[in-house]
């Protein structure tokens, strides 16, 4: 397999010669797993004037106008779920290569394809993208669910990164068996377009929820039907709420419990939120855990920073039938500041 080892270097050379090496998906064999779907949206809840407080999107993602449009739309168009197939690929730490075509989840920072043994596979499903590699929330919502698209005969490539406190527990609870990190030569490789929340994705979320419920039993520590403030803490990109203590006291006074992400296992998260009736949390990847735990018809209110406004998590809330509301929170000297009256009013409206 000496020649296959050189494929990523050949592609790097082509790129230096200003030749495009990105895979041309129009020339790749493609199977429609689930067609495009247009879905009528359930109304979202937010106070008058909230959306006008938004000042900027998350840098590097969509425009502010498009993010705001997600909240205002009356129907959503779910992109189709597609399975692509390529042949004779070298698969390595940064992605995979065929001659003249690359697929990267990250940049090449070490040439493992030149130094490590190569394992040959007949067929492999590659379930990672650059976004799911970089952000745990997208790993959980997209790569984890894409793993169920793999045909039964396929080996599975799904990152289980050591720095993620929860990835291995999710993989084990779902009974998935991803490959160890290494270099592989795949005679046939499948990869996926799977970012829409159409029928296929919703069904796979349901399947994973069932597997998690089977693997993790309920616990008497957590009362059913509870109202919970899900505290993000310092994980991921910092979103510090400078008056969070005041917010928590106000919520506790109306019956909310406080649940801290820091130090919580997947079992803790499942057991706490599986029967929660109302949840309030700042926008962020910790909310992605809720997709696999919160019951249909329950309430989620997202506190969205004005200067990193994003509506991406709405799609996941819709996928499991949550009642969703938002409160835009303003930038302050030491992070963000929540208008507690706005939170309580939004909670009241969404419950009514």
Question: Could you explain the architecture of this structure?
Answer:
With 352 residues, the chain is an alpha/beta fold. The protein folds into 2 domains: 166 residues, no CATH class; 155 residues, Rossmann fold. Helix content is 30%, strand content 26%. It is built from 12 helices and 15 strands. Strands 1, 4, 5, 6, 7, 8 and 9 form a 7-stranded mixed β-sheet that branches. It has a 6-stranded mixed β-sheet with strand order 11-10-12-13-14-15. It has a two-stranded antiparallel ribbon with strand order 2-3. Strand 10, helix 9 and strand 11 form a beta-alpha-beta unit. The longest helix is centred in the middle third of the chain and has 17 residues. It is globular and about 65 Å long.
Brief description of this entry?
The chain has 352 residues and is of the alpha/beta class. It folds into two domains: 2-32 and 79-213, no CATH class; 51-77 and 224-351, Rossmann fold.
- Average pLDDT taken over every residue: 93
Number of domain modules: 2
Global morphology: globular
Strand content: 25-35%
Name the structural class.
alpha/beta
The whole-angstrom Rg is 22 Å
- Sheet with most strands: 7 strands, mixed
**Helical proportion?**
25-40%
Q: Low-confidence runs (pLDDT<50, min 5 residues)?
A: none
Element string (H = helix, E = strand): HHEEHEEEEHEHHEHEHEHEHEEHEEH
Q: Work out the helix count.
A: 12
Write a concise keyword list for the protein shown above.
352 residues; alpha/beta; Rossmann fold; 2 domains; seven-stranded mixed β-sheet; six-stranded mixed β-sheet; 12 helices; globular
